[in-house]
Amino acid sequence: MNNEIRNLEPKALWNKFADLNAVPRPSKKEEKVIAFMKDFGQKLGLETFEDQVGNVIIKKPATPGMENRKTIVIQSHLDMVHQKNADTNFDFDTQGIEMYVDGDWVRAKGTTLGADNGLGVATIMAILESKAIQHPAIEALFTIDEETGMTGAMGLKGGLLDGEILLNLDTEEDDEIDIGCAGGVDVTAERSYNEEEVPENSVSYTITVKGLSGGHSGMDINKGLGNANKIMNRLLFDSFENFGLQLVEINGGGLRNAIPRESVAKVIISEIFDEAFVFDMQEVINDIKTELKTTEPKLQIVIEKTNDMPAGVMDLGVQEGLIRALYAAHNGVYRMSADMEDLVETSNNIARVEVKEGKIKINCLTRSSVESSKMDLANALRSTFELIGCEVTFGGAYPGWTPNVNSPILEVLKDIYTKQNGNEPNVVACHAGLECGILGTNYPDMDMISFGPTIKGAHSPDERASIGSAQKYWKFVLEILENIPVK
What we know:
alpha+beta, Aminopeptidase, Alpha-Beta Plaits, nine-stranded antiparallel sheet, 12 helices, 30% helix, 28% strand
């Protein structure tokens, strides 16, 4: 199957991507890919080492005639988001990604593809291996854990790198050059609750929300996509208000950086409301599907009666607080940037809702390019959940990357892009967590830029990479390397 991928052009890029995708590389479990990358550099006879947190650095001297150019750092992250469809049988810890070609797109079978940021990693590997590509001295930086905390970038010490320019290969539109990004903070709300006996004459139901698009909780947050946790809570709210629904458990969403696609809740209803409950729920379902018919045409909401009566249900007082808090908690765009057109400044993703066996846990990811606005929204969420007795903690905070419109390397890239394509690139800041802002804390004088090939549906099983864009991007990379300024 992956031989089809290896025959794509440019072969140097796609072959390295196929090699990489054969290696399991979940965030926080990067041992296999770290060993793979160190082995790759050592077999090339290049200086290769792992820093104290697990980042891999490989250094390659300039090709003949390029010794007077500035040393560059080329950087991508090794880990990938692991999401799969509910009906896909796949073990991310042991299996390589199964890829196939679909027209102009490379896709994976029922899982994320890993093009974010595997195509960046593969690009660097191809450059390091090549004996024909002209380039200045290179410091290849492969960071870990970008997707779930950016601990690799945070742990990189000053003094390990000498490069004056950093090329980050983690942007997902090939006509964009990124010069700034959002920072983020994890917001986690937790509390315990007592379970009550199931009332007599109750019937049990399972409610399932599925078929949503999902996507990147930063880059896709302004697209009007459905959030499975918010949709599920809307259903629970309506049935609690009208029929006294009681909650058994919720299993909704997954990773903080992915818009939740699925949620499953187990509930009970008094049998006297059985028919009315089903009828009313169908009306609410029809309303939701109508509202989301453009952005979520594959949305499914299924209500099934079950024969398994639970041992207990959530305390009604806690349940009422939980449902109202989730309704009140902000999800989606909070504020648009006043300085850059069409840029989301601040947002939140209610990523995970888990209710089971006396424990509630809610995971959010709050993003903003403005630190004070990020904390404003985080504190709003904190206040909402504290009102129902939750303990709320902030963690995994990372800074944004302040745009530098006077960046010298930006001018180089703009000139090359315009010459190659006949039009100017879009110079933007993105609502995602690029590592440039973090790396800049220990390397404040490094001139940084981010770009990459077109990737759609990142952080979801619909992730796909454009073959034509990869060819355009590869040509762009090669000319950038040839035009790095002199020291």
